[in-house]
Each structure stands twice: as C-alpha cells, then as structure tokens.
Amino acid sequence: MALNREQIRESIERAGDEHWEALVRHHTDVYPESNPTPGDVCRAEAERLNALGLADDRHLKLVESRVERMPPAVRITHVFEDLDKGNRFETEPFTDYE
User: Fold this and answer.
1) Is residue 46 within 8 Å of 21, Cβ to Cβ?
2) What is the pTM of this model?
3) Average pLDDT of 37-55?
C-alpha cells in the first residue's frame, strides 16, 4: 500500500518534536523567501519512498523519519522495520528541498 503525506508526517513526529520543528523552521526561517512547506516535503517524500518500492513490501513498516537542517536544504533519513526479521534499517540520508 502506498505511503501518503500524513504517514510521513506521523513518522517525523514519532522521531521527536525536534525533527518536526526542524522541518517547520526550514520553511519559516528563510522568510520572505519560501522553501517548500512541511506538507510539500512530506508529500514529496511519500512519492520518493513509493518510487523506491519501499511501500510495496508488506514486510516493512515505517518506524520514524529523522529530519536535520542542512541549510539551504534538509536531510531526511527514514527508519524501517523488517517485520519478518525483526530488525531495523535506515535509508540512505536524502538531502534536498531547497
């Protein structure tokens, strides 16, 4: 089943308030310029993970998504759990959304 924007937002929130705040500050701190909104980033990340096929594997569960500010961009790392093996793994950090 495909991931959506809300699921990505929830996974960022599960990583901790500092991760969601980093995404919000990425958008607001550059005013009057405008980086993508947190919703735009979540939507794009859902599309990216879907394109990688990670949402198609019913044995994988998105645990959390970590956000780091890397001005002028953000770096996002997703943590998945392999339900069959009982272990977790991280995606390669992805830096973008300037």
Assistant:
1) no
2) 0.94
3) 97
Distance, in Å, from the CA atom of 10 to the CA atom of 56, rounded to the nearest integer, reads 19
Q: Which amino acid is at 18?
A: E
Evaluated on CA atoms 29, 35, 39, 43, the torsion sign reads negative
- Residue ranges in the chain assigned as alpha helix (H): 5-15, 17-28, 38-51
Token pair listed for 30 = 């550059």
Partners of 95 in beta bridges = 75
Question: CA nearest 55: which of 47, 67, 43?
Answer: 47
Give the residue carrying structure tokens 């998945």: 80
- State residue 33's pLDDT score: 86
Separation between Cα atoms, residue 97 and residue 40, nearest integer Å: 9
Q: Residue 51 pLDDT > 90, yes or no?
A: yes
Query: Model confidence over 66-80: pLDDT tens digits?
Result: 999 999 999 999 999
Phi/psi of residue 53, each to 5°?
Answer: 85, 5
